[in-house]
């Protein structure tokens, strides 16, 4: 906070599965009243969560001003029992029940992807970031297939740590990494085709979006950015918990600004592949959820199509949510 700031009050605010959050009311040295949003976190992924979100929000705000709350700072302190990391930013009074206007919102997301360019032309990010609370591997890579493989291996490891080993699942994971990704994502950068790394929010779904009650503007939060293939942003929109982003109007409007990458006819398969990341991230954070089984079935689909193996089980269309249309509400419990 600026020097001379006087704290008036601090009260719990919002619901978060991984952090404690609060609204801070303050008076600046010049007498102006203001409000801040405070996020505190301990344990696994604490530092990359707050440091990563600070840098992610700052990068997004530099490209599309106002799309995220302005980040004020981050740091850490010892509460006598453990190390606590915190993030401080502007407070927005938001409505979380309303969907963003598709046209204006997708225009902003397209601006972010088009104008948020990697500083060195490579895929990755300068510092570690998280999705949920799971830290990403964001080492710089020229190959998008290699960069995505790092991130997928991360969530596979986290998922196995939470839910235990499963031999059939592990075989499908390995086939996906060894066969599917080099073919499906490698095609984006072969035979003369190229893709440009884009700044993505990194965890863009309905619970990370609000409508500012004063301005009516759409506001994103909980960013865990990376410079990635722009289409990765929309993997979460395929998941069972999507409740308005699964409407085709959002993607149709986005593609007016940024067309699908070549090969265009593999867009849906890439989207299925990208959805496996948030599914396994969810499975790792919520033991026993259906997400692991859904991701496993999607792996089998992709393996059968791009890297067949007699050693794998068969894909089951009756478990494919893109066919059944199943909706599974996402349950979020407030961290005590």
Give a description of the structure:
This protein is α+β, with helices and mostly antiparallel strands. The protein is 35% helix and 18% strand. The chain is built from eight helices and twelve strands. It has helices at residues 46-63, 102-115, 144-163, 167-184, 248-257, 267-285, 291-306, 321-324; strands at 6-12, 20-27, 33-41, 71-78, 83-90, 94-95, 130-131, 134-135, 198-200, 209-212, 218-220, 226-228. The strands form four sheets. A five-stranded antiparallel β-sheet has the order 1-2-3-5-4, with helices on one face. Strand 4 and strand 5 (83-90) form a beta hairpin. Helix 3 (144-163) packs antiparallel against helix 4 (167-184). The longest helix is centred in the middle third of the chain and has 20 residues, at 144-163. The radius of gyration is 20 Å and the shape is globular. The protein starts with 5 loop residues before the first strand and ends in a 12-residue tail after the last helix. The mean pLDDT is 94.
Task: Give the amount of beta strand, in percent.
Answer: 15-25%
- Flag low-confidence runs: none
Helix content bin:
25-40%
Side by side, the strands of the main sheet go 1-2-3-5-4
Mean pLDDT: 94
Q: Let me know the largest β-sheet.
A: 5 strands, antiparallel
Determine the number of helices (DSSP H or I, runs of at least 4 residues).
8
In terms of structural class, how would the helical and strand content be classed?
alpha+beta
Gross morphology = globular
Radius of gyration over C-alpha positions, nearest whole angstrom? 20 Å
Instruction: Write down the secondary-structure element order.
Output: EEEHEEEHEEHHEEEEHHHH
How many beta strands in the DSSP annotation? 12
**CA-to-CA gap between the ends?**
26 Å
């Amino acid at each position: 906070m600026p020097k001379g700031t006087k704290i008036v009050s601090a009260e719990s605010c919002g619901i978060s599965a991984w952090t404690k959050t609060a609204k801070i009311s303050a008076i600046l040295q010049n007498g102006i009243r203001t409000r801040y949003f405070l996020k505190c976190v301990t344990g696994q992924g604490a530092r990359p969560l707050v440091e990563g979100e600070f840098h992610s929000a700052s990068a997004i705000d530099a490209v599309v001003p106002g799309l995220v709350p302005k980040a004020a700072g981050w740091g850490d302190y010892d509460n006598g029992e453990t190390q606590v990391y915190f993030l401080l930013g502007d407070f927005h009074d938001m409505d979380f029940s309303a969907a963003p206007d598709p046209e204006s919102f997708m225009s902003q997301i397209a601006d972010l992807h088009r104008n948020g360019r990697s500083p060195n032309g490579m895929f990755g990010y300068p510092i570690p970031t998280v999705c949920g609370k799971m830290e990403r591997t964001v080492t710089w890579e020229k190959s998008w297939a290699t960069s995505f493989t790092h991130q997928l291996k991360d969530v596979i490891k986290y998922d196995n740590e939470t839910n235990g080993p499963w031999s059939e699942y592990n075989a499908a994971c390995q086939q996906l990494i060894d066969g599917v990704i080099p073919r499906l994502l490698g095609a984006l950068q072969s035979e003369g085709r190229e893709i440009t790394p884009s700044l993505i929010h990194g965890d863009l779904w309905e619970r990370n979006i609000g409508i500012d009650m004063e301005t009516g503007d759409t506001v994103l939060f909980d960013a865990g950015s990376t410079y990635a293939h722009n289409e990765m942003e929309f993997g979460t929109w395929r998941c069972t918990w999507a409740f308005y982003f699964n409407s085709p109007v959002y993607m149709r409007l986005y593609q007016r600004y940024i067309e699908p990458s070549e090969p265009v006819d593999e867009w849906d398969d890439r989207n299925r592949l990208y959805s496996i990341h948030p599914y396994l991230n969810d499975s790792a954070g919520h033991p026993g959820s259906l997400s692991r089984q859904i991701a496993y079935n999607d792996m089998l689909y992709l393996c059968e199509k791009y890297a067949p193996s007699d050693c794998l089980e068969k894909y089951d269309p009756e478990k494919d949510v893109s066919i059944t249309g199943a909706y599974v509400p996402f349950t979020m419990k407030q961290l005590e």
